């Protein structure tokens, strides 16, 4: 039987699962963790780090560490999202050749699908090791509210990672699948999914016969944990500025340390009533004296700082109920998905809204990948393992075209069950018009400019005639992945043009081919060098520890001990570059001893 893995490609963390003897199972990575940070970094020597290793060194290599790139997937350079990241992320983004976004790491530019592919490739490698053979097929999850551009770009990322993405599935739908799998009950559930970067809420009917019917979905692709973290960062930075008249935002290293500490504080507040942020040597006075950042954050203060964000999720819950014409009482169960649902204020808001305790039956970080693995298995092996599984999802946003006067005309309404096809007749607007141009978009605004453009195409060779005399029939289709295609037909002449709407921010075929090849080469090299690779990663982790000790205790460390550690680090890196396993192993041992010695040095 073909294996299909389910991958939850999250903004902050990713998770991979597979069906094992009919049981959906999360696969732990080589460090034993069931989720892997969605972080990619390039070291000074251009070595690629993904996951925990990338996250651990983020503080000392902030400019070359890309995190939360999911926020940028399928977005254009001139989008609001790009502007936000440009102003707040410690890494640099630049405009790509197609008005798209590229991230600069150690002087090289990477497209967002490429960076996402590095994370997917890591998840694939985790699964390959676990299964003892390479897997090629995957179901990848996306936020329900993702538009076509974002879905296409995610599919491209899968291809670059060497995966055949047999289905893109919405995260809340996958969560519902994992929850309802094998339960055999008729229920109506709400899935509240607040992750690192996105928020979705979906309502589903689960039928006893294995039918999962999504009734409606709503969301915000720019609302998640990082926004909560940003509020804490603002609070810390502003507090510091008030005290010392210094703007910490100008210092990328300091900002990365503050962001890290903010996330940690947020997590601490899920179980404690107060969290301390303590960042020694965060800056220095013009006279060169060190300054430290130390502040206590209470739960009340955190709730106050983030109340409007929680309120936005509450409005969306109301909106989805309204659309579905359901009341709160019609919901039998509320599923909480995503790491952010551990936040007390979030849990309270959901409880208050539905007037009941949200369900705790699923693991918020793992349930999406589990659902994707169930769907994956059902797609390749309909009969044996799973019995019937029928998934009916909906399109989250209205699909339509721009018409005269910059208006938007919807063709397939939001919350229509997919796959969906709709035909529409258009007529020429001018005398002797021989071609028509269509601008395809998704969104809910009547003003075309407020919606997300997906692409454009032209139908040429129309018969000349007076305005409105020539008819063109346009067929819009959305497949089960939520991906859009459009074709247009000159009704009189029967001339048809089938156009796949390529996103204006998408990659060209040549670029894709190059990236797929580079991904394949990297995977081959990596598996050939497994021993070398794990030693290199050990060195990275030791260097990271060394840097932290240096940062925290700079003025009290013995210079000779510091120098010894530094030079064995340099020798280890040199051996790594020369691919010399024996030398690398030797220097790695020396480095480990040097770091141990540093740990024992006097602390302030
Ligand atoms: P996800 O995208 O579902 O992996 O969710 C990741 C988000 O959940 C990140 O913003 C994390 O900071 C946040 N998160 C994870 N664990 C906790 C926790 N215990 N308390 C608060 N937030 C958390």
Any overview of this molecule?
- Helices cover 38% and strands 28% of the residues.
- It is of the alpha+beta class and 604 residues long.
- The longest helix is centred in the middle third of the chain and has 26 residues, at 299-324.
- The protein is globular, with a radius of gyration of 26 Å.
- The protein binds adenosine monophosphate.
- The site of adenosine monophosphate has 17 residues, from α7.
CATH architecture of the largest domain: 2-Layer Sandwich
Give the oligomeric state. single chain
Globular, elongated, flat, extended or rod-shaped: what is the shape? Answer: globular
Major sheet: 6 strands, mixed
Say which molecules are bound, naming each kind only once.
adenosine monophosphate
Rounded to the nearest angstrom, the distance between the terminal CA atoms is 60 Å
Secondary structural class: alpha+beta
In CATH terms, what is the fold-level topology of the largest domain? Nucleotidyltransferase, domain 5
Supply the number of structural domains: 4
Low-confidence spans: none
Taken as a percent bin, the fraction of beta residues is: 25-35%
Overall pLDDT confidence:
91
